[in-house]
């Protein structure tokens, strides 16, 4: 099995179990803006697109006021956000092994700092890239390309770990390998990828 020196983690749905908070925020937002809750398809889709694209998919303008309202609703639901079972233990081991780790997320810089600090990721990982660090969010590889260049990382030594097809497409665009963290998804792209069933399996990749 190939070993990697650099790991880049998606945040929501990979490290953090934020599904309840995300669905709660978008459902409340939809009820406020278009007087109905999310359909089953819309609920699935929000985990595979940026916040802006998800809002567009609902037929709602992505004005500054609307996006701030969505963030306000997300903050109100953030008390339910926690690490997936086993993830924090693995991050602690990886940190002790001095594995180079970072986060790549479609959150804004401010939203990412909340995840890094308030949600505990920052105890183990101090580097990140986000939608503000590239022209386009995932599924574009812009933020990953920025991160690789900033930290002078070799593509063949770097693995992106995520739960969404958008993460996989971003890794392909950036030219790095990808691993699906199956505790956060049931959807996959048909391109080649590693599949990880449990967080402790990550340790076999370093």
TrEMBL record:
Domain of life: Bacteria
Keyword tags: Hydrolase
Gene Ontology terms: cellular component: cytosol
SUPFAM superfamilies on file: HAD-like
InterPro entries (UniProt xref): HAD-like_hydrolase_sf, HAD-like_sf, HAD_2, HAD_sf, PGP-like_dom2
Signal peptide: none
GO MF terms, alphabetically ordered: phosphoglycolate phosphatase activity
GO biological process: DNA repair
Gene3D superfamilies: HAD superfamily/HAD-like, Putative phosphatase, domain 2
PANTHER family: PHOSPHOGLYCOLATE PHOSPHATASE
Protein name from the UniProt record: Phosphoglycolate phosphatase-like HAD superfamily hydrolase
Organism encoding this protein: Ezakiella coagulans
């Amino acid at each position: 099995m190939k070993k990697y020196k650099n790991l880049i983690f998606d945040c929501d749905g990979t490290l953090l179990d934020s599904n309840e908070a995300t669905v709660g925020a978008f459902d409340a937002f939809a009820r406020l803006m278009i007087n109905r809750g999310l359909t089953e398809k819309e609920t699935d889709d929000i985990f595979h697109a940026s916040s802006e694209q998800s809002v567009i998919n609902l037929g709602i303008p992505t004005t500054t006021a609307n996006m701030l309202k969505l963030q306000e609703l997300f903050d109100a639901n953030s008390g339910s956000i926690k690490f997936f079972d086993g993830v924090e233990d693995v991050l602690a081991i990886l940190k002790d092994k001095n594995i180079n780790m970072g986060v790549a997320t479609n959150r804004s810089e401010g939203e990412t700092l909340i995840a890094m600090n308030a949600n505990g990721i920052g105890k183990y990982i101090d580097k990140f890239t986000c939608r503000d660090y590239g022209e386009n969010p995932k599924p574009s590889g812009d933020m990953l390309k920025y991160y690789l260049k900033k930290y002078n990382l070799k593509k063949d030594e770097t693995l992106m770990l995520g739960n969404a097809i958008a993460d996989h497409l971003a890794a392909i665009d950036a030219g790095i390998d990808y691993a699906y963290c199956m505790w956060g998804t049931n959807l996959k792209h048909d391109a080649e990828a590693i599949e990880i069933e449990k967080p402790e399996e990550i340790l076999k990749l370093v």
